[in-house]
Write a structure and sequence with these properties.
heterodimer; A: alpha+beta; two-stranded antiparallel ribbon; B: mainly alpha; 10 helices; 70% helix; globular
């Protein structure tokens, strides 16, 4: 079974938010309707985003590192958000493992967002339905696009190639190799949700052989 | 979590209706027989009260939905979703309560049997409602058998209190029995709620910033959550009140729900005053609203680990 996913390299993410804005641009322009942007030029703007980049400081001064951390729906292999949905609007596709919301069936009860430990779902205040990352399902299977553009918008936009996209069940895929060779890990493994998206850990700068740089 | 008033009214009003139905059917099946006309008024009218209370709760729940016009879709996934099961159980309870009211009103011999069917629906509804919260294993404040025990006992307490006020008006000789049941439910409810509070204070979070980010370093500080304004994630999962307000609400519900209402019930019993019993029910319901608000506010969602600092 295919399981499409993102693999995010935390070594090279520079926190530029290009993935955030490209995601918003693509997903606000599709047939599903625009993503909410409430009060965009006011004091307290609030909108729907499928992908956010957060920043953390790790360690204690002077031994600190800045960690830019992009996060979107992790397309769990055992997604806790799907069985709780009362209408069947939340579902996981058998053919490619993408977790999606059928906006025509969603009643906006928000229960799936309670059931997601990662906070990956956001209720769109404009359409009053639950929304989340679709892995750009309308790009990656779109035959009107050139084959090299059939990737999620965030992957296309990343200037440092921090975002890899592919089938994590295919052992020979680029993403599987990256996970295998570079210690790819998942978030909150303690809940057994088996996220499909993986992260490649930061390598300690002191361990990098400078002669090879 | 941010307490949602729609859900607070749904769970408290339906809980009271379920407890009241238990009280009615208990008296119907095991109490001394009433005159046919009195039985018609007491059981028929009481069951209509259950219909009204649960109907109000159901009406409140619609305000929780972003798309209430699609409510009918929510019964579809009963095989996997406790919420879907609740959506079936609430109308089933209301329908059987209405049937019970009609059966008594028209003097049907099988009325008590319908009452038992309605009690079965009430019990099923309690399980569904509690499991909506208890099944979310990573919201650890909710994921315990205490959630079900709390919903059942507080529902019984408010239902039995309502039954005593109803009986004071319609069938006074049942007031002492109902009050005894209400005291017992309140005592058991207090014991369970205190144990639940003790458990939740001692809980260790299931997830940490280290497991949320996959970084082992014990010193991690958030510098930006990726948005300057509010987001769904900052609105839905935080109660937004100070620790002092939370402590205050806890004392309000502990005092109003248990000793406050028990004191008024005892006064009502001493003075044989139906008005005091009704006042006890009102005070108890205010305490119940505070209790349910606290139930939601105390739940700590692991997604909050990602939303600690705006910038």
């Amino acid at each position: 079974m295919t399981q499409l996913a993102l693999v995010i390299d935390l070594n090279v993410c520079v926190g530029c938010h290009a993935c955030v804005t490209s995601c918003k641009q693509w997903n606000t322009s599709g047939s599903a309707g625009p993503l909410e942007d409430a009060n965009p030029y006011g004091a307290s703007p609030s909108g729907t985003f499928f992908n956010r980049v957060q920043t953390f400081e790790v360690g204690e001064f002077p031994l600190t590192e800045t960690l830019h951390f992009p996060k979107s729906c992790l397309h769990c292999e055992d997604p806790p958000c799907v069985p709780v949905c009362p209408t069947g609007a939340s579902y996981k596709r058998k053919e490619d493992g993408i977790v999606l919301v059928d906006y025509d069936k969603c009643i906006g009860c928000k229960y799936c967002s309670w059931a997601c430990p990662y906070g990956a779902r956001e209720l769109d205040e404009g359409r009053k339905v639950m929304t989340k990352c679709t892995l750009c399902v309308d790009r990656i299977h779109n035959h009107a696009l050139p084959e090299n553009e059939r990737k999620p918008a965030c992957v296309m936009a990343c200037p440092t190639n921090a975002r890899l996209f592919g089938d994590v069940h295919d052992e020979d895929s680029e993403v599987s190799q990256a996970i295998r060779e570079r210690g790819g890990y998942t978030l909150m493994p303690e809940w057994g949700t088996r996220p499909a998206n993986h992260y490649l850990p930061r390598r300690l700068a002191s361990l990098i052989d400078e002669a090879k740089l | 979590m941010k307490p949602a008033w729609s859900v607070i009214f749904l769970t408290t009003l339906c809980g009271m209706a379920q407890g009241l139905m238990l009280a009615l059917v208990g008296a119907d099946a095991f109490g001394a027989a009433l005159e046919p006309a009195a039985a018609r008024r007491f059981f028929g009218g009481g069951a209509l009260l259950c219909v009204a209370l649960a109907g109000l709760g159901l009406f409140a729940s619609f305000f929780h939905l972003g798309r209430p016009e699609r409510f009918w879709r929510s019964a579809a996934m009963w095989r996997t979703s406790w919420l879907s099961r609740e959506v079936i159980a609430v109308p089933a309870f209301i329908a059987t309560a209405a049937w019970y009211a009609w059966a008594h009103h028209s003097g049907q011999a099988y009325a008590t049997a319908v009452g038992f069917l309605c009690v079965a629906c009430a019990l099923a509804l309690w399980v569904c409602t509690a499991m909506i919260y208890a099944c979310l294993r990573f919201i650890r404040e909710w994921a315990s058998p205490f959630t079900l025990a709390n919903f059942v006992l507080l529902g019984c307490a408010s239902g039995f209190t309502a039954a005593s006020a109803w009986a004071a008006w319609m069938a006074p000789h049942w007031v002492p029995a109902y009050l005894l049941a209400a005291y017992a439910a309140l005592a058991a409810g207090l014991a369970v709620r205190l144990l639940m509070l003790r458990r939740n204070v001692r809980l260790r979070p299931g997830s940490t910033l280290q497991s949320a980010l996959g970084v082992r370093n014990p010193k991690i500080a958030q510098k930006s959550m990726g948005a300057m304004g509010g987001t769904f994630n900052t609105r839905e999962f935080f109660h937004g009140r100070s620790a002092a307000v939370i402590r205050c609400v806890r004392w309000v519900f502990l005092l109003l729900l248990f000793p406050g209402s028990a004191l008024l019930l005892a006064l009502g019993q001493l003075r044989t005053s139906g008005a005091l019993l009704a006042a006890a029910l009102a005070v108890q319901y205010l305490g119940l609203l505070a209790e349910r608000w606290f139930f939601f506010a105390q739940a700590n969602h692991p997604q909050n680990l990602y939303y600690q600092v705006i910038s």
